[in-house]
């Protein structure tokens, strides 16, 4: 058994003058304190990567900087799925007795540490170096391709996709740490600058500075335990050119495996934390995971189903789209928010019942997937 | 041309689209390898594609990340299902729609030639 015993999250947006290590340290300190632990209790470290400050041994660099000497440490790289992949690994490490308290941490000064062009260029390298990158695609273009096909097959419109941006912004308005606090409308999304059609600026997550961390432990350290009930991955391709058809993408495979490993059904889930790099990502993942029928996720947004008071509250912190996206830490904010919800600490964002949560991360171009169920135990 | 022969294609400056066919299992692949990714058999046979296909997906890039690519915006990135049965990424006319029948030519982009698809003349 494993528990998420503490979480830490910085605000996302601009942290002028903070390095990646600074942001990682800040989040790590918050998470360790939240778990009621001391630095010396941490005997395992898993960290993500920083595109601003790449290093071949980032976990070791971080451990030295932070001032700990773990028995187990290394970095993990699965793009946007890294946060949940690290959580899955930490879960297995503590279950196997390799470590007692694993610190999972990521942070990056992606907004102020490099130019937007540099960020876009670095991320476009997930494309095939010989057969895709010379064509000048961008990450939004890879997802724009997927969006065009998904809209074609399932009758989804650009206005439908805009609903997800509006929802994430409404949620971000309730969180003081979010990068954006101005409400937006579907018309605003439709009128925003074209980036890689059908995706427009407000369909895309921003670039942010920020850090996130959590502690995964063999035993709970607080009264309310948040337990990893089960998790699984799926990796079907790396490049969008080599992606399988829409009905065979990895989210469906990962969730099926996770349901089996957790022994739970979707009907048990009360809260959802789903990767939302673009509006199309969120729409597709919700439908792939079975949280909405094909082409029906937008209608569920309109009906309030995914709102704080709805049947399936979703990304109540505002997600990547509006809380912000600082790389690996971006999707870790989803888990931090889930933990706050499950432990009744989400303040004005608190949902009625977050006893069982489904988390899902996606890396690459819907390439690598991690599904995870978290369960509250008292 | 035998399986070990390497045909030039647009990625090496030749006006051609090349794919590989496995002599053992028949799998087609676009990304060049020295083996078949489906069954592992060595030396898939290299073949020159006809340049005909169907549009699978499109995305019109309006925000580029380098000065060289910015000079071309907006440009349409497309995924094409080649008539031979493999999928490739390319450029295409800005008004291409999914399921359009298309034919390839080669166009300059950011200092090199890339495959560029337009609606087939029928």
Structural description of this entry:
The complex is a heterodimer of chains A (378) and B (122). The model of chain A has no long low-confidence stretch (mean pLDDT 96). Chain A contains 12 helices and 11 strands. Chain A has 378 residues and is of the alpha/beta class. In chain A, a hairpin with a 1-residue loop joins strand 5 (194-197) and strand 6 (199-200). Chain A has a 5-stranded mixed β-sheet with strand order 1-7-4-2-3. Chain A has a 4-stranded mixed β-sheet with strand order 8-11-10-9, sandwiched between helices. The relative contact order of chain A is 0.20. Chain B folds into 2 domains: 1-48, no CATH class; 52-119. With 122 residues, chain B is mainly β. Helices cover 3% and strands 42% of the residues of chain B. Chain B has a 5-stranded mixed β-barrel. Chain B has a 3-stranded antiparallel β-sheet with strand order 2-1-3, with no helix packed on it. The termini of chain B are far apart. Chain B is globular. Chain B is built from 1 helix and 8 strands, in the order E-E-E-E-H-E-E-E-E. At the A-B interface, helix 4, helix 5 and strand 5 of A face strand 4, strand 5 and strand 6 of B.
Query: What assembly state would you assign to the polypeptide chains in this entry?
Result: heterodimer
Average pLDDT figure of chain B? 94
As a percent range, the share of helical residues of chain B equals under 10%
Q: Largest beta sheet of chain B: what is the strand line-up?
A: 4-5-6-8-7
Measure the end-to-end span of chain B. 32 Å
Strand content of chain A: 15-25%
Note the overall shape of chain B.
globular
Largest sheet of chain B: 5 strands, mixed, barrel
Major sheet description of chain A: 5 strands, mixed
Give the number of helices of chain A. Answer: 12
Strand order of the largest sheet of chain A: 1-7-4-2-3
List unreliable stretches of 5+ residues of chain A: none
Nearest-integer average pLDDT of chain A: 96
End-to-end C-alpha gap of chain A: 14 Å
Structural class of chain B: mainly beta
The assigned structural class of chain A equals alpha/beta
